[in-house]
Write a structure and sequence with these properties.
Elements: H1 10-14, E1 25-28, E2 33-38, E3 41-47, H2 66-73, E4 79-82, E5 86-91, E6 96-103, E7 106-114, H3 117-132, H4 147-151, H5 155-167, H6 176-183, H7 199-202, H8 205-221, E8 236-240, E9 248-255, E10 259-266, E11 274-282, E12 285-290, E13 293-301, E14 304-310, H9 318-324, E15 328-332
Antiparallel strand pairs: 1-2, 2-3, 3-7, 4-5, 5-6, 6-7, 8-9, 8-15, 9-10, 10-11, 11-12, 12-13, 13-14, 14-15
Helix pairs in contact: 5-8
Protein backbone atom coordinates (compact mmCIF):
# COMPACT_ATOMS: atom_id res chain seq x y z
CA UNK A 1 0.00 0.00 0.00
CA UNK A 2 3.02 2.31 0.27
CA UNK A 3 2.84 2.75 -3.51
CA UNK A 4 -0.24 4.93 -3.00
CA UNK A 5 1.92 7.66 -1.49
CA UNK A 6 2.67 10.46 -3.91
CA UNK A 7 0.28 9.14 -6.55
CA UNK A 8 -2.88 10.81 -7.89
CA UNK A 9 -6.34 9.67 -6.85
CA UNK A 10 -6.77 7.66 -10.06
CA UNK A 11 -4.00 5.34 -8.93
CA UNK A 12 -6.25 3.99 -6.17
CA UNK A 13 -8.70 2.88 -8.83
CA UNK A 14 -5.89 1.17 -10.75
CA UNK A 15 -5.14 -0.84 -7.61
CA UNK A 16 -8.74 -2.00 -7.46
CA UNK A 17 -9.95 0.30 -4.66
CA UNK A 18 -13.48 1.61 -5.03
CA UNK A 19 -15.64 4.37 -3.62
CA UNK A 20 -19.19 5.60 -3.90
CA UNK A 21 -19.94 8.96 -5.44
CA UNK A 22 -19.13 11.82 -3.10
CA UNK A 23 -17.27 9.54 -0.67
CA UNK A 24 -13.60 10.53 -0.21
CA UNK A 25 -12.70 7.06 1.04
CA UNK A 26 -11.66 4.25 -1.30
CA UNK A 27 -11.89 0.72 0.04
CA UNK A 28 -10.76 -2.65 -1.17
CA UNK A 29 -9.78 -6.20 -0.28
CA UNK A 30 -13.08 -6.81 1.50
CA UNK A 31 -12.81 -3.59 3.46
CA UNK A 32 -9.36 -4.36 4.86
CA UNK A 33 -7.87 -1.25 3.20
CA UNK A 34 -9.17 2.29 3.17
CA UNK A 35 -7.55 5.27 1.43
CA UNK A 36 -8.94 8.75 2.02
CA UNK A 37 -8.42 11.65 -0.40
CA UNK A 38 -9.05 15.37 -0.07
CA UNK A 39 -9.03 17.56 -3.18
CA UNK A 40 -7.33 14.76 -5.07
CA UNK A 41 -4.55 14.30 -2.48
CA UNK A 42 -4.08 11.21 -0.33
CA UNK A 43 -4.39 12.09 3.37
CA UNK A 44 -4.85 8.73 5.10
CA UNK A 45 -4.46 4.97 4.66
CA UNK A 46 -5.90 2.44 7.11
CA UNK A 47 -5.06 -1.28 6.97
CA UNK A 48 -7.02 -3.66 9.19
CA UNK A 49 -6.82 -7.17 7.72
CA UNK A 50 -4.51 -9.91 8.95
CA UNK A 51 -2.69 -12.86 7.46
CA UNK A 52 0.09 -13.46 4.97
CA UNK A 53 -2.22 -12.61 2.08
CA UNK A 54 -3.34 -9.33 3.61
CA UNK A 55 -2.03 -5.95 2.48
CA UNK A 56 1.23 -4.63 3.87
CA UNK A 57 2.92 -1.25 4.28
CA UNK A 58 6.71 -1.03 3.95
CA UNK A 59 6.88 -4.74 4.71
CA UNK A 60 4.81 -4.73 7.89
CA UNK A 61 1.55 -6.66 8.22
CA UNK A 62 -1.20 -7.10 10.78
CA UNK A 63 -0.17 -9.69 13.40
CA UNK A 64 3.56 -9.00 13.04
CA UNK A 65 5.50 -8.56 16.33
CA UNK A 66 6.29 -4.90 16.91
CA UNK A 67 10.05 -5.61 17.12
CA UNK A 68 9.97 -7.08 13.63
CA UNK A 69 7.89 -4.14 12.40
CA UNK A 70 10.40 -1.68 13.89
CA UNK A 71 13.24 -3.47 12.12
CA UNK A 72 11.50 -3.09 8.77
CA UNK A 73 10.46 0.52 9.28
CA UNK A 74 13.56 2.06 10.86
CA UNK A 75 15.41 2.60 7.58
CA UNK A 76 12.83 4.97 6.07
CA UNK A 77 11.07 6.06 9.26
CA UNK A 78 13.86 6.73 11.76
CA UNK A 79 11.79 8.49 14.44
CA UNK A 80 10.14 5.80 16.57
CA UNK A 81 7.84 6.34 19.57
CA UNK A 82 6.54 3.30 21.47
CA UNK A 83 3.68 4.24 23.83
CA UNK A 84 2.83 0.65 24.78
CA UNK A 85 -0.61 0.80 23.15
CA UNK A 86 0.81 1.77 19.77
CA UNK A 87 4.14 2.26 18.02
CA UNK A 88 4.66 5.30 15.80
CA UNK A 89 7.13 5.66 12.92
CA UNK A 90 7.90 9.07 11.42
CA UNK A 91 10.00 10.58 8.67
CA UNK A 92 10.23 14.27 9.44
CA UNK A 93 11.66 15.10 6.02
CA UNK A 94 8.85 13.49 4.00
CA UNK A 95 6.29 14.24 6.76
CA UNK A 96 5.07 10.64 6.61
CA UNK A 97 3.55 9.25 9.79
CA UNK A 98 2.73 5.57 10.40
CA UNK A 99 0.95 4.51 13.60
CA UNK A 100 0.55 0.80 14.36
CA UNK A 101 -2.06 -0.01 16.95
CA UNK A 102 -1.02 -2.98 19.09
CA UNK A 103 -2.79 -6.03 20.42
CA UNK A 104 -0.41 -7.17 23.09
CA UNK A 105 2.94 -7.22 21.32
CA UNK A 106 1.61 -7.55 17.77
CA UNK A 107 0.45 -5.06 15.16
CA UNK A 108 -3.37 -4.82 15.17
CA UNK A 109 -3.89 -2.08 12.58
CA UNK A 110 -1.85 0.35 10.48
CA UNK A 111 -2.76 4.02 10.07
CA UNK A 112 -0.77 6.15 7.62
CA UNK A 113 -1.06 9.94 7.53
CA UNK A 114 0.96 13.09 6.98
CA UNK A 115 2.40 15.37 9.66
CA UNK A 116 1.75 19.10 9.67
CA UNK A 117 4.58 21.61 10.11
CA UNK A 118 3.22 22.38 13.57
CA UNK A 119 3.23 18.71 14.57
CA UNK A 120 6.82 18.33 13.37
CA UNK A 121 7.86 21.46 15.27
CA UNK A 122 6.20 20.27 18.47
CA UNK A 123 7.80 16.84 18.15
CA UNK A 124 11.27 18.28 17.60
CA UNK A 125 10.87 20.61 20.57
CA UNK A 126 9.70 17.76 22.82
CA UNK A 127 12.57 15.57 21.62
CA UNK A 128 15.09 18.34 22.35
CA UNK A 129 13.64 18.91 25.83
CA UNK A 130 13.70 15.19 26.53
CA UNK A 131 17.31 14.93 25.43
CA UNK A 132 18.38 17.96 27.47
CA UNK A 133 16.69 16.48 30.53
CA UNK A 134 19.12 13.56 30.32
CA UNK A 135 22.10 15.85 30.98
CA UNK A 136 23.23 18.05 33.83
CA UNK A 137 25.03 20.32 31.35
CA UNK A 138 23.42 19.54 27.95
CA UNK A 139 25.76 21.72 25.90
CA UNK A 140 29.04 21.53 27.80
CA UNK A 141 30.57 20.28 24.53
CA UNK A 142 29.51 23.30 22.48
CA UNK A 143 29.88 26.42 24.65
CA UNK A 144 31.77 27.69 27.69
CA UNK A 145 29.79 27.26 30.90
CA UNK A 146 29.61 30.24 33.24
CA UNK A 147 30.76 29.99 36.82
CA UNK A 148 27.32 31.17 37.96
CA UNK A 149 25.43 28.35 36.25
CA UNK A 150 27.85 25.70 37.48
CA UNK A 151 27.53 26.96 41.05
CA UNK A 152 23.75 26.72 40.66
CA UNK A 153 23.90 22.92 40.35
CA UNK A 154 23.59 20.67 43.41
CA UNK A 155 26.90 19.34 44.72
CA UNK A 156 26.19 15.67 44.05
CA UNK A 157 25.16 16.47 40.46
CA UNK A 158 28.38 18.37 39.68
CA UNK A 159 30.29 15.09 39.75
CA UNK A 160 27.90 13.57 37.21
CA UNK A 161 27.89 16.75 35.12
CA UNK A 162 31.67 16.74 34.83
CA UNK A 163 31.76 13.09 33.85
CA UNK A 164 29.13 13.65 31.16
CA UNK A 165 31.94 15.22 29.17
CA UNK A 166 33.84 11.92 29.29
CA UNK A 167 30.69 9.84 28.73
CA UNK A 168 29.91 11.63 25.45
CA UNK A 169 33.11 10.13 24.08
CA UNK A 170 32.34 6.57 25.17
CA UNK A 171 34.49 6.51 28.30
CA UNK A 172 34.09 3.34 30.41
CA UNK A 173 34.00 4.33 34.08
CA UNK A 174 35.75 2.44 36.83
CA UNK A 175 33.30 3.93 39.34
CA UNK A 176 30.41 1.45 39.42
CA UNK A 177 27.81 4.08 40.32
CA UNK A 178 28.84 6.33 37.44
CA UNK A 179 28.85 3.43 35.00
CA UNK A 180 25.35 2.38 36.04
CA UNK A 181 24.10 5.95 35.69
CA UNK A 182 25.41 6.40 32.16
CA UNK A 183 24.33 2.90 31.11
CA UNK A 184 20.78 4.10 31.77
CA UNK A 185 21.17 7.00 29.33
CA UNK A 186 19.95 6.20 25.76
CA UNK A 187 22.67 8.41 24.23
CA UNK A 188 25.59 6.67 25.98
CA UNK A 189 27.69 3.96 24.37
CA UNK A 190 30.69 2.99 26.48
CA UNK A 191 33.53 1.62 24.37
CA UNK A 192 36.80 3.21 25.55
CA UNK A 193 38.71 2.03 28.62
CA UNK A 194 40.60 4.41 30.89
CA UNK A 195 43.89 3.09 29.51
CA UNK A 196 42.82 3.84 25.93
CA UNK A 197 41.22 7.21 26.61
CA UNK A 198 43.11 10.33 25.53
CA UNK A 199 41.20 13.40 26.67
CA UNK A 200 43.53 15.80 24.89
CA UNK A 201 42.86 14.09 21.57
CA UNK A 202 39.06 13.86 21.87
CA UNK A 203 38.03 16.86 23.99
CA UNK A 204 37.44 20.16 22.22
CA UNK A 205 38.36 23.42 23.96
CA UNK A 206 34.85 23.85 25.39
CA UNK A 207 35.04 20.44 27.03
CA UNK A 208 38.54 20.95 28.42
CA UNK A 209 37.74 24.32 30.01
CA UNK A 210 34.33 23.20 31.27
CA UNK A 211 35.74 20.06 32.88
CA UNK A 212 38.34 22.18 34.69
CA UNK A 213 35.73 24.73 35.81
CA UNK A 214 33.31 22.11 37.11
CA UNK A 215 36.10 20.30 38.96
CA UNK A 216 37.31 23.50 40.61
CA UNK A 217 33.83 24.45 41.81
CA UNK A 218 33.09 20.84 42.74
CA UNK A 219 36.07 20.87 45.10
CA UNK A 220 35.16 24.26 46.54
CA UNK A 221 31.54 23.36 47.20
CA UNK A 222 32.54 20.00 48.66
CA UNK A 223 34.80 21.80 51.11
CA UNK A 224 38.08 20.38 49.85
CA UNK A 225 40.10 23.57 50.21
CA UNK A 226 43.62 23.12 51.50
CA UNK A 227 43.79 21.96 55.09
CA UNK A 228 47.17 20.69 56.39
CA UNK A 229 47.30 16.91 56.49
CA UNK A 230 44.39 16.34 54.12
CA UNK A 231 46.20 16.45 50.79
CA UNK A 232 45.97 12.99 49.18
CA UNK A 233 48.70 13.30 46.53
CA UNK A 234 51.72 11.08 47.19
CA UNK A 235 55.38 11.93 46.84
CA UNK A 236 57.08 9.90 44.10
CA UNK A 237 57.23 9.26 40.37
CA UNK A 238 54.10 9.11 38.22
CA UNK A 239 54.18 7.67 34.68
CA UNK A 240 51.75 8.64 31.91
CA UNK A 241 49.19 5.93 31.10
CA UNK A 242 48.31 7.37 27.67
CA UNK A 243 51.63 8.38 26.07
CA UNK A 244 51.96 9.94 22.64
CA UNK A 245 55.31 11.15 21.25
CA UNK A 246 56.82 11.00 24.74
CA UNK A 247 55.93 9.02 27.85
CA UNK A 248 55.40 11.67 30.49
CA UNK A 249 57.21 11.34 33.81
CA UNK A 250 56.16 13.62 36.68
CA UNK A 251 57.88 13.40 40.03
CA UNK A 252 56.37 14.91 43.16
CA UNK A 253 59.55 15.73 45.02
CA UNK A 254 58.00 17.01 48.23
CA UNK A 255 54.60 17.83 49.74
CA UNK A 256 54.31 20.80 52.09
CA UNK A 257 51.42 22.42 53.92
CA UNK A 258 50.52 24.75 51.06
CA UNK A 259 52.55 23.64 48.05
CA UNK A 260 54.27 20.75 46.34
CA UNK A 261 57.56 20.65 44.48
CA UNK A 262 57.44 18.74 41.21
CA UNK A 263 59.52 18.01 38.13
CA UNK A 264 58.39 17.39 34.57
CA UNK A 265 60.17 15.05 32.18
CA UNK A 266 59.80 11.99 29.99
CA UNK A 267 61.11 8.44 30.06
CA UNK A 268 62.88 9.14 26.78
CA UNK A 269 64.89 11.99 28.36
CA UNK A 270 67.86 11.58 30.69
CA UNK A 271 66.80 14.35 33.07
CA UNK A 272 63.86 16.51 34.06
CA UNK A 273 62.93 19.46 31.85
CA UNK A 274 61.76 21.71 34.65
CA UNK A 275 61.47 21.68 38.44
CA UNK A 276 58.98 24.07 40.02
CA UNK A 277 56.45 24.55 42.82
CA UNK A 278 52.68 24.18 42.58
CA UNK A 279 50.16 25.67 45.00
CA UNK A 280 47.89 23.19 46.77
CA UNK A 281 44.34 24.37 46.03
CA UNK A 282 42.34 21.45 47.43
CA UNK A 283 42.80 18.13 49.14
CA UNK A 284 43.37 16.51 45.75
CA UNK A 285 44.48 19.38 43.50
CA UNK A 286 47.53 21.55 42.95
CA UNK A 287 48.11 24.29 40.38
CA UNK A 288 51.29 25.60 38.84
CA UNK A 289 51.94 28.64 36.64
CA UNK A 290 54.80 28.51 34.15
CA UNK A 291 55.02 31.99 32.64
CA UNK A 292 51.25 32.13 32.14
CA UNK A 293 50.87 28.45 31.25
CA UNK A 294 48.69 26.92 33.97
CA UNK A 295 49.05 23.26 34.95
CA UNK A 296 46.51 21.52 37.20
CA UNK A 297 47.30 18.23 38.95
CA UNK A 298 44.21 16.35 40.16
CA UNK A 299 44.37 13.11 42.17
CA UNK A 300 41.44 10.66 42.21
CA UNK A 301 43.33 8.74 44.88
CA UNK A 302 46.91 8.58 46.15
CA UNK A 303 48.16 6.69 43.09
CA UNK A 304 46.18 8.12 40.17
CA UNK A 305 46.62 11.64 38.87
CA UNK A 306 45.10 13.55 35.94
CA UNK A 307 46.94 16.54 34.51
CA UNK A 308 45.32 19.36 32.54
CA UNK A 309 46.57 22.70 31.30
CA UNK A 310 45.45 26.05 29.96
CA UNK A 311 47.22 28.71 27.93
CA UNK A 312 50.27 28.60 25.70
CA UNK A 313 53.95 28.04 26.40
CA UNK A 314 56.84 29.04 24.17
CA UNK A 315 60.54 28.37 24.23
CA UNK A 316 62.77 25.33 24.46
CA UNK A 317 60.97 22.06 25.33
CA UNK A 318 57.59 23.88 25.38
CA UNK A 319 56.10 21.35 22.97
CA UNK A 320 57.09 18.42 25.19
CA UNK A 321 55.83 20.14 28.34
CA UNK A 322 52.47 20.94 26.72
CA UNK A 323 52.13 17.39 25.42
CA UNK A 324 52.71 15.70 28.76
CA UNK A 325 50.50 18.12 30.74
CA UNK A 326 47.42 18.42 28.52
CA UNK A 327 44.65 16.00 29.44
CA UNK A 328 46.91 13.12 30.48
CA UNK A 329 46.43 10.37 33.06
CA UNK A 330 49.32 9.33 35.33
CA UNK A 331 49.83 6.49 37.78
CA UNK A 332 52.22 6.20 40.72
CA UNK A 333 54.90 3.78 39.51
CA UNK A 334 56.13 0.98 41.73
CA UNK A 335 59.09 0.45 39.39
CA UNK A 336 60.38 4.00 39.92
CA UNK A 337 59.52 4.30 43.60
CA UNK A 338 61.72 1.73 45.30
CA UNK A 339 62.93 3.76 48.26
Amino acid sequence: METLLGQPEDYAVELGLKNSEGNPAYTGLDGSVQAVYQEGNLVNIVIQSSGEEGPSFHGIRIGMPKEEAAGKMSDAYPEIVDSGESIQFMNLDTKRNVVCGLNGNNVANINVSFLSDEEIGNYRQAREEQMRAQYIFPDSNSRYLSEEEVRGVETDRLFIGRNEIFARHGYLFQDEGLQQHFNSMPWYSGTVTAEQFNADAVFNDFEKKNAELIKRIEDEVAGTSNVPGQFIGSRGVYICTTPRSFTGKIEILSVGDSSIQYSLGALEMPQAIVTEEALITGNNTAQANLYGYEITFTWSDAENMYVTSAGELTGMDSGTIMEITTGMGYIWSTEFNRW
